[in-house]
Amino acid sequence: MTTHLQPTGSAYFISKDTALAESHTLSVLVDNEPGVLARVIGLFSGRGYNIESLTVSETEHASHLSRITVVTRGTPHVLEQIKSQLERIVPVHRVVDLTVRARDLGQERPIERELGLIKVAGNGEHRVEALRLAEAFHAKVIDATVSHFVFEITGKSSKIDQFIAIMQPLGLIEVCRTGIAAMNRGPQGM
């Protein structure tokens, strides 16, 4: 009697295909020099990885180092590939997956904050309601005329999303967001 086995692939291959995509926050310490950001972004675009949020700023002036904070989504296998490929770029000093590091330390997700500037036009009752809601969200008025406001709001991205959604029917005109700045909780540095 002959038994025919169907190829099923390795368990490693199956786990890659069935794993769920997760959102992770990566912190990348790089030299502050021309072209570094383009190389990092090129890695993502060249391999079809999406960037949900991107923030860059010099963090150590004397050392000429910048910190790139990237929020991306992928399976655990894809996220490992991204980290590995980022670490191979020459001006990259360190790549830390803040999401995994927090989990390994038994902590909540990293502290993540974003700044939003929200312009809302309105008169009469809409104007009063926009001000009332802004106060409830701890948004500050940073510019105002008789026909519009510009609010400044900081917090988690979900808070800013919610504020934008409630301002939509009140006369939302324009939105500008910084992207996420993040760091892990606790005394450890990057």
From TrEMBL:
Q: Which UniProt keywords apply?
A: Amino-acid biosynthesis, Branched-chain amino acid biosynthesis, Transferase
- Give the pathway listed in the UniProt entry for this protein: Amino-acid biosynthesis; L-valine biosynthesis; L-valine from pyruvate: step 1/4; Amino-acid biosynthesis; L-isoleucine biosynthesis; L-isoleucine from 2-oxobutanoate: step 1/4
Q: Which reaction does it catalyse?
A: 2 pyruvate + H(+) = (2S)-2-acetolactate + CO2
- All copies of the ACT domain together span 25-100
- Classify the source by domain of life: Bacteria
Q: What is its EC number?
A: 2.2.1.6
* Gene Ontology MF terms in the entry: acetolactate synthase activity; acetolactate synthase regulator activity
Does the keyword section mention Protease? no
UniProt GO BP = isoleucine biosynthetic process; L-valine biosynthetic process
Q: Name one GO cellular component term.
A: cytosol
Q: What class of enzyme is it?
A: transferase
In the record, the note on similarity to other proteins reads:
Belongs to the acetolactate synthase small subunit family.
SUBUNIT field: Dimer of large and small chains.
* Role, per record: Catalyzes the conversion of 2 pyruvate molecules into acetolactate in the first common step of the biosynthetic pathway of the branched-amino acids such as leucine, isoleucine, and valine.
Q: What is this protein called?
A: Acetolactate synthase small subunit
Q: Which source organism?
A: Rhizobium setariae
Q: What is the lineage of its organism?
A: Bacteria, Pseudomonadati, Pseudomonadota, Alphaproteobacteria, Hyphomicrobiales
Gene symbol here is ilvN
